[in-house]
Amino acid sequence: MFGDFLTIEADRHEIMKDEAWVKKVREVVHNPNIFVYRHRVEKNTFVVCEWMDKPRTCTELFIVDAPPDHSPTNMPSMPTIAHRCRPMIEMFDDMRGKIHKKNYDKAVGEMESTERRLDAADYLGKNGMDEAAFQHTAGCAPYASDIQSTGMMDETVENLTDLASTKVHSTSVVGEKRAKHKMK
Fold first, then answer.
1. Angle (nearest 5°) at CA 140 between 136 and 142
2. What does pTM read for this prediction?
């Protein structure tokens, strides 16, 4: 599995000589530990790897159906390769940043939802709707911020648009029939 450590076994893995493609990838990703091996058991399977403990252990990066210099049909683009061949610490930092951003966005959404819910409760209370105001203040009434409800809102708008266009269409068909009937 990708990202796991693999022990190179001479009877199963044939280390390929460094051809132009491997040299180019090493240059692009600034990593001299990139190499390719061929599965001896599974014919026509070539694996691009990174040495972890040369020449014993590596981690598989991706598999192609022909030697990389022969332009295999399932070869990823160079930007994809560069992204996949980044140092592990960079990958972990990116994942950590994405997790922090997701948590931050969720917290902001919850704060906005609470503020809007309390604003709605104030409005309801000022207009004599004490029970509804209490439900909003207690969080019993459903209320969502823009961040939390964007997907639902888009779906609702799409459904309403479909319904509206269907209604207009059916009305125009009825209108056309009436117009034809009056002409007779």
1. 80
2. 0.50
